[in-house]
Amino acid sequence: MASLRSDNMVAPPSGTAASTAPPTTVKIVIAGGFAVGKTTFVSSISDITPLTTEAAMTSKSIGVDNAGQVSDRKMTTTVAMDFGRIALPGNLWLYLFGTPGQDRFSFMWDDLIVGSIGAVVLVDTSRFDDCFGAVDYFEQHRLPFIVAVNCFDGKAFHDTQEIRQALNVPGDTPVVYTDARSREATKQTLLTLVRHSMKRASEASVAT
Ligand SMILES: Nc1nc2c(ncn2[C@@H]2O[C@H](COP(=O)(O)OP(=O)(O)O)[C@@H](O)[C@H]2O)c(=O)[nH]1
Ligand SMILES: [Mg+2]
Fold first, then answer.
1. pTM of the predicted model as reported, rounded to 2 decimal places
2. CATH architecture of 17-207
């Protein structure tokens, strides 16, 4: 697996010998329940115009898509996935794949995780229930993941220990706060995942 030499975000160098070498690419999945900020997270960090597949929420979604208590902040919904890319020093590119929110697209998750190093599970602490499915899924598929609490309006309603217990995530799984709208916060969140995945990979190689 590639290692990160610096956490500074830069555009890939152009017109240099290094830029002609194929980049090392790393795939990361951004998951979580409905309206937790997945599309916002991918959009705030991507250094290409993110590909999103947003569709307007209409009255046809009533009773089909669970907007729950957050229907007032949700005018559109991701109907397939979000896609973004971040270039890091060392010709390392992170590709971000945001999962679709609706249960009827859950069949896509098996394809989305192929080749990925890990996942960020975004959580809104006022709606824990929405992220249980993602946590269970990654545990079952043994994909390294971290839990990132999106602090809507800067409010964290629970400390990370309470969140860890509520979600029943293993002790070595990082639980961090983030702000999906902030490039700096999303960058730190992704670096936490990359470090966690690398630790898991090195533990696995020692064990074999
Ligand atoms: N105040 C605030 N709003 C946010 C934050 N993250 C996302 N939102 C808003 O919450 C709504 C749902 O976010 P979205 O990224 O579409 O969620 P998704 O369904 O998980 O992709 C949008 O209107 C966002 O602008 C945040 O950290 N703070
Ligand atoms: Mg979305």
1. 0.81
2. 3-Layer(aba) Sandwich (3.40)
